[in-house]
């Protein structure tokens, strides 16, 4: 008897949920009076929850600043948690696009999610903004029509940084240590390409599994005769790496440089003196001294009680980008082709990170900042010490020639002369 | 120690018939609402069926033979990877790909089975966990084959045959339903056969079965292989549904969620795990639409369900098993 | 040579941390025959509680004590209120620990947020020893010593005290022990609490180096399982030996064959389970 009750209870819950879903649905929507629906998918629980929330917070901050209104229509955000699992992000994307009938999609954090969603987004013919996903190929060989980025590619800032490391930092021999997955390969690959093209040498490449937390076995392998160590880590691995790099006496012996996420503001406040003097490159820094950025950082700090990371800025920019496109089409987002075209042709100059426009492949052309960690007014910050303007994902290379090179991977293939 | 009879009570049978009827007949009516809502709901039902099948495959091992496998998602994932690799890199034909997916998953379980079938109880749990971790490690590190962390994307859509676009949500759902029902029938036949009854005997008391002259190792081994085969079928469906495969298909979280589906649903009943899988898929998606605290709620639901129905939902009021 | 020494020392450090975590797990298993899936959660909660206490008191000692008390208490309550109802049904018992693991995970996120953090080094233990080119952090040496001390303490408690004897009785034959007045239920709860407290202590000890972050509950759990399997469930001596074996294999494996880092760990576990499931020192 209890069994019957249990099953009926379950069936009731299921039906109620289904009916609830149906009830929440309105008839096919008349334009103009209805809100513009933005579907956001990202990790809101699990190991990447804070990064996902940073992205979401950046977006919500901008929408709040403009009163959730654009071109005379209200903006409604529907957010779903993908737990950083690609299959889940597909399910949630289906829910947002098919059930909730959103007009535009935004989000995704990991490259795997980016790859998983791309075919479905293309098939659904709905514009999607990737604010953070940095897998190079998504705006290169595998580029689609409906996905644009308001972030970066993993190799983009590192092309610039390689040249900087050789010419300005006067480094000749560098060892790299990075997480062993595509993000790590693309960061190191970009750096290696330009660094070696200028005459430098990457003498050692150490790869750590993504689950690493104790770096001792890897740090012990770094040969002592390099000019610098280039590191790519993020989140808690960046925190742990910094700690342990100092622990093993390397900090006072070898200069530490790296990719931007290693000292990004999502972990910088938790670091101590071990982070001082580390030089990295990224398309953003919370310490960037422009009016637009100062305003953004102040507003973010006031609302969320912490400084914005590049994750937060990525979707603040993304939200601003969306609104600019909405206004360009006069609010008529239902004409998706026109809306997509508007998204691709937005050019903004007053973003927190500076001026951005998209290249033909849907990836930003933006400034790259070389930053150095300093302590100012008691807090650590990424002080900008150099700027490379208008950097594209192809650096100074011709896109067709660039694309003939294989994608950056674990084994670096030097380009044909 | 009581034993329920293997035939279902009339009430349970009635519930099942209603459920099956609903699964078959209801989806076309979703279109009366909105097409988008319909395709999403049908998609969710498809997911529930795929995981229902996966859960039933684990039930053979865990519920019927008493072998608690904590790495079962491994075969699910390996079959999905086989499908992904063959269809994207080698552009193999559909039937060949499906056959290879099934073959690879089954062969792997045949190989692993040799290592694990003599191990028991919590040690079996541990060794299957370890093997699951090894498989995950392979999928993560064997980058030329699996693409590593990025996974393999862009699996081809199912083509139209007989005038039906099989990749559309409704046709794919019915395809999944047909496969699901066929597997249900096969599994039901299996558990009610002498082989199936022997499995249950081994679960209850292996020494007794041995004293009756049964080759218990062989039965355990075959149970492992058969459950691996059915898990592979679910993996093939999941690969084509998402058109994407990633290491998350077979990591520890996947195996443990699967384990939960079976134990909450009611091990040793086939129906229970299928319901458990469907309920968990539905819960995760429904709850998360309303609150960010869905993980907390899910954990609470698990605890309450176990308190209230320690042998699983479908076993409520039925037998009480005091042996692991 | 320098390399060898450094890796060996670090293998011992890994072993020290693993012992603290796996020791608790093996104790629990020895008494209760369950696999506690929430064990990683205790490790995680330990460092999170320590973080809160540390930011207020700046004392690692206070933070450790607080972490052990709080998490030990949670473990005790979990066992007494929920788990003991299923003493004879290992499967539901294990699944209940899984439900708790989810609760703890989201609860921690709710209370502390998702930003990662590290604990500060105690000032006396900052820096590293630099002897003949071998550089090794002082704090890691400290952890090795502390873990060794804990191991000795537990061993003494187990073998040489009355409570240890009662515990062993309760494990060997619960009915008989209850018949002679040993409070089996209370002891089970206590052991679970102590196991949780040990894991929490491990989290705090690792705090300055590994820190705390969401997802750490399941990161270390498989490693703890490997130790317990290789050493033998329920055996403290096994936990010591298993930790050292696993710590060494892990460190040298990562250094020598980094591509196979997942295998170097789990292959020995598979082999042990296939050949001698009860591990090096386990009893059946």
What features would you describe in this structure?
- Helix content of chain A is 39%, strand content 22%.
- Chain A has 417 residues and is an alpha/beta fold.
- In chain A, helix 2 crosses helix 10 and helix 3 (86-99) runs parallel beside helix 4 (111-124).
- The longest helix of chain A has 22 residues, at 2-23.
- Chain A is globular, with a radius of gyration of 22 Å.
- Chain B has 324 residues and is mainly alpha-helical.
- Chain B has one domain (40-315): ABC transporter involved in vitamin B12 uptake, BtuC, CATH 1.10.3470.
- A two-stranded antiparallel ribbon of chain B has the order 1-4.
- In chain B, helix 3 (35-64) crosses helix 12 (252-265), helix 4 (73-88) runs antiparallel to helix 5 and helix 8 crosses helix 9.
- Chain B is globular.
- Chain B starts with 9 loop residues before the first helix and ends in a 16-residue tail after the last helix.
- Residues 1-6 and 320-324 of chain B have low confidence and may be disordered.
- Chain C starts with a helix and ends in a 9-residue tail after the last helix.
- The model of chain C has no long low-confidence stretch (mean pLDDT 88).
- Chain C has twelve helices and two strands.
- Chain C has one domain (2-219).
- The radius of gyration of chain C is 19 Å and the shape is globular.
- Chains in contact: A-B, A-C, B-C.
- Chains A and B meet through helix 1, helix 3 and helix 4 of A and helix 1, helix 3 and helix 13 of B.
Regions with little confidence, pLDDT below 50 for 5+ residues of chain C: none
- End-to-end Cα distance of chain B: 12 Å
Q: Low-confidence runs of chain B (pLDDT<50, min 5 residues)?
A: 1-6, 320-324
Oligomeric form: heterotrimer
Q: Find the structural class of chain C using helix and strand composition.
A: mainly alpha
Radius of gyration of chain B: 19 Å
Instruction: State the helix count of chain B.
Output: 14
| Strand/helix succession of chain C | HHHHEEHHHHHHHH
Fraction of helical residues of chain C: over 70%
Encode the helix/strand succession of chain B as letters: HHHHHHHEEEHHHHEHHH
Strand percentage of chain B: under 5%
Reported by name, the CATH topology of chain B is: ABC transporter involved in vitamin B12 uptake, BtuC
Strand content of chain C: under 5%
Order of strands across the biggest sheet of chain C? Answer: 1-2
CATH architecture of chain B: Orthogonal Bundle
The biggest chain-chain interface is: A-B, 46 and 45 residues
The strand order across the widest sheet of chain B is 1-4
Q: Give the strand tally of chain B.
A: 4
């Amino acid at each position: 008897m209890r069994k019957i009750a249990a099953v009926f209870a379950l069936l009731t819950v299921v039906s109620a949920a289904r009916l609830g879903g149906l009830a929440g649905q309105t008839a096919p929507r008349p334009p103009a009076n209805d809100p513009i629906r933005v579907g956001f998918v990202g990790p809101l629980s699990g190991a990447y929850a804070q990064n996902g929330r940073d992205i979401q917070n950046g977006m919500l901050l901008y929408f709040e600043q403009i009163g959730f209104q654009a071109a005379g229509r209200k903006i409604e955000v529907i957010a779903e948690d993908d737990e950083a699992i690609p299959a889940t992000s597909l399910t949630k994307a289906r829910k947002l696009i098919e059930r909730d009938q959103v007009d535009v999609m935004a989000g995704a954090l990991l490259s795997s999610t980016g790859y998983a969603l791309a075919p479905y987004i293309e098939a659904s013919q709905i514009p999607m903004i990737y604010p953070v996903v940095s897998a190079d190929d998504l705006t290169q060989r595998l580029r689609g029509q409906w996905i644009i980025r308001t972030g970066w590619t993993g190799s983009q800032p590192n092309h610039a940084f390689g040249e900087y490391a050789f010419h300005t930092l006067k480094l000749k021999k560098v060892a790299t240590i990075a997480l062993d997955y595509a993000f790590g390969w693309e960061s190191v690959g970009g750096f290696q390409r330009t660094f070696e093209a200028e005459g430098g040498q990457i003498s050692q490449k150490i790869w750590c599994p993504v689950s690493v937390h104790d770096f001792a076995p890897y740090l012990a392998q770094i040969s002592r005769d390099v000019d610098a160590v280039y590191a790519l880590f993020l989140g808690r691995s960046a925190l742990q790496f910094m700690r342990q790099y100092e622990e093993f006496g390397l900090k006072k012996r070898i200069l530490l440089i790296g990719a931007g996420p290693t000292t990004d503001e999502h972990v910088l406040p938790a670091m101590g003196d071990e982070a001082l003097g580390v030089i990295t490159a990224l398309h953003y820094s919370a310490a960037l001294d422009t009016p637009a950025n100062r305003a953004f950082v102040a507003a973010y700090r006031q609302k969320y009680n912490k400084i914005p990371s590049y994750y937060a800025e990525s979707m603040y920019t993304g939200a601003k980008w969306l609104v600019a496109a909405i206004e360009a089409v006069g609010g008529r987002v239902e004409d998706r082709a026109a809306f997509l075209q508007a998204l691709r042709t937005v050019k903004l100059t007053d973003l927190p990170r500076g001026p951005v426009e998209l290249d033909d492949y849907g990836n930003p052309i933006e400034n790259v900042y070389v930053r150095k960690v300093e302590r100012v007014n008691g807090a650590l910050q990424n002080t900008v010490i150099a700027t490379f303007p208008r950097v594209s994902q192809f650096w100074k290379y011709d896109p067709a020639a660039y694309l003939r090179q294989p994608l950056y991977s674990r084994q670096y293939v030097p380009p044909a002369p | 120690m009581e034993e329920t009879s293997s035939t279902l009570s009339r009430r349970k049978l009635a519930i099942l018939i209603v459920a099956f009827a609903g699964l078959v007949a209801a989806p076309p009516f979703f279109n009366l609402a909105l097409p988008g809502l319909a395709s999403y709901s049908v998609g969710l039902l498809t997911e529930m069926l795929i995981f229902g099948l996966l859960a039933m495959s684990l039930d053979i091992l865990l519920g019927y033979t008493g072998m608690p496998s904590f790495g079962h998602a491994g075969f699910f994932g390996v079959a999905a990877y086989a499908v992904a690799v063959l269809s994207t890199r080698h552009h193999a034909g559909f039937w060949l790909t499906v056959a290879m997916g099934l073959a690879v998953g089954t062969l792997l379980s045949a190989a692993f089975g040799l290592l694990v079938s003599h191990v028991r109880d919590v040690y079996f749990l541990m060794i299957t966990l370890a093997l699951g971790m090894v498989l995950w490690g392979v999928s993560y590190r064997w980058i030329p084959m699996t693409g590593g962390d990025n996974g393999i994307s862009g699996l081809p859509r199912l083509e139209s045959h007989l005038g039906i676009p099989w990749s559309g949500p409704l046709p794919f759902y019915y395809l999944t339903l047909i496969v699901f029902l066929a597997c249900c029938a096969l599994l039901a036949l299996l558990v009610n056969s002498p082989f199936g009854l022997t499995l249950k005997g081994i679960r209850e008391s292996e020494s007794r079965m041995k004293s009756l002259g049964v080759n218990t190792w062989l039965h355990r081994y075959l149970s492992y292989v058969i459950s691996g085969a059915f898990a592979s079928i679910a993996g093939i469906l999941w690969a084509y549904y998402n058109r994407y495969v990633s290491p998350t298909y077979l990591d520890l979280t996947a195996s443990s969620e699967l384990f939960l589906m079976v134990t909450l649903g009611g091990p040793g009943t086939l129906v229970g795990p299928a319901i458990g899988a469907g309920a968990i898929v539905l819960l995760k998606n429904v709850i998360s639409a309303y609150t960010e605290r869905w993980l907390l709620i899910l954990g609470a639901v698990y605890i309450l369900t176990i308190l209230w129905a320690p042998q699983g939902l479908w076993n409520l009021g039925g037998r009480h098993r005091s042996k692991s | 040579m320098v390399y060898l020494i450094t890796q060996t020392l670090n293998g011992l450090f890994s072993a020290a941390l693993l012992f603290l975590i796996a020791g608790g797990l093996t104790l629990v298993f020895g008494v209760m025959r369950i696999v506690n899936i929430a064990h990683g959660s205790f490790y995680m909660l330990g460092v999170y509680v320590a973080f809160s206490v540390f930011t207020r008191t700046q004392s690692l000692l206070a933070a450790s004590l607080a972490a052990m008390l709080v998490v030990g208490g949670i473990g005790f309550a979990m066992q007494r209120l929920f788990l003991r109802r299923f003493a004879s049904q290992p499967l539901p018992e294990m699944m209940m620990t899984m439900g708790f693991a989810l609760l703890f995970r989201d609860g921690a996120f709710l209370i502390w947020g998702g930003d990662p953090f590290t604990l500060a080094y105690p000032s006396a233990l900052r820096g590293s020893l630099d002897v003949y080119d071998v550089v090794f952090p002082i704090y890691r040496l400290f952890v090795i010593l502390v873990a060794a001390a804990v191991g000795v303490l537990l061993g003494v408690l187990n073998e040489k005290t009355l409570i240890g004897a009662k515990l062993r009785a309760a494990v060997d034959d619960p009915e008989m022990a209850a018949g002679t007045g040993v409070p089996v239920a209370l002891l089970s709860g206590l052991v679970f609490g102590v196991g949780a407290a040990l894991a929490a202590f491990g989290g705090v000890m690792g705090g300055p180096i590994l820190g705390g972050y969401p997802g750490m509950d399941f990161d270390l759990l498989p490693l703890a399982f490997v130790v317990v399997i290789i050493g033998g469930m329920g055996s403290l001596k096994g936990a010591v030996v298993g930790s050292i074996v696993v710590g060494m294999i892990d460190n040298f494996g990562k250094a020598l064959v980094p591509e196979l880092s997942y295998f170097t760990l789990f292959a020995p576990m598979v082999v042990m389970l296939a050949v001698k499931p009860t591990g090096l020192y386990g009893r059946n």
